[in-house]
Design brief:
The chain is of the alpha/beta class. It is 48% helix and 10% strand. The chain is built from eight helices and six strands; from the N terminus they run H-H-E-H-E-H-E-H-E-H-E-H-E-H. Strand 2, helix 4 and strand 3 form a beta-alpha-beta unit.
Length: 202
């Protein structure tokens, strides 16, 4: 670990003080706080039962990582390469050339996510920006067309964000969320990177 990162983590630990988070979940939250300097995240994270273990296993098994936008892809590529993982797919690279908004495909990112689920039926699905992509993914899950090993659902913003997170919470799938309007690509990347570090052998 770089000395500046180690010092930053020490400062975060000191400012947070005692807490009740399990060690692996706290490692994810701490890295998200490190990437945003937003201590409110400490009380906004939600982990379904077994979500962290499922994400770690998926990475160890070299399952694909599917992301909504390139910022998330760029934020995780280096760390995943460090553990020998190179299968990352971005929804924006799968948008049909003749895309016209309709049905679940209300945005280019949603259309790309729908197209991606035709290629990847499992793996880690990471939504850090587009709530429409999360809504499209959840619909595919409900129809039984895709069964992710883990969904990281942390879109950010004001339109459809909280709705998308609530819809995700209603499906029985391993998931990590940040409640409310907060989240974003840096948080999504931090979660995946933390899982990657946790997946390394002791």
């Amino acid at each position: 670990m770089h000395p500046i990162t180690a010092e930053s983590f020490a400062i975060i630990d000191q400012e947070i003080g005692p807490h009740n988070w399990p060690p692996e979940e706290y490692a994810i939250i701490r890295r998200a706080i490190h990437s945003t300097a937003d201590f409110e995240l400490l009380n906004l994270f939600e982990f379904s039962k077994g979500a962290v273990a499922s994400g770690i296993t998926a990475l160890q098994q070299q399952q694909p990582v599917v992301v909504d936008v390139r910022m998330v892809q760029m934020g995780i590529t280096g760390v995943l390469k460090g553990i020998g993982h190179t299968s990352i797919a971005c929804a924006l690279d799968y948008v049909p050339e003749d895309f016209v908004p309709s049905g679940a495909a209300t945005t280019r990112t949603a259309a790309g996510m729908l197209a991606l689920t035709q290629h990847y039926s499992t793996g880690i699905f990471v939504i850090g920006n587009a709530p429409t992509a999360l809504l499209a993914l959840v619909e595919q899950i409900r129809q039984g067309l895709v069964k992710p090993s883990l969904v990281v659902g942390v879109p950010v913003g004001f339109v459809a964000v909280e709705e998308a997170k609530q819809v995700l919470a209603q499906v029985d799938i391993p998931q990590i969320q940040v409640r409310g309007r907060k989240g974003g690509s840096p948080v999504a990347a931090a979660i995946v990177n933390a899982l990657a570090y946790l997946s390394k052998p002791d």
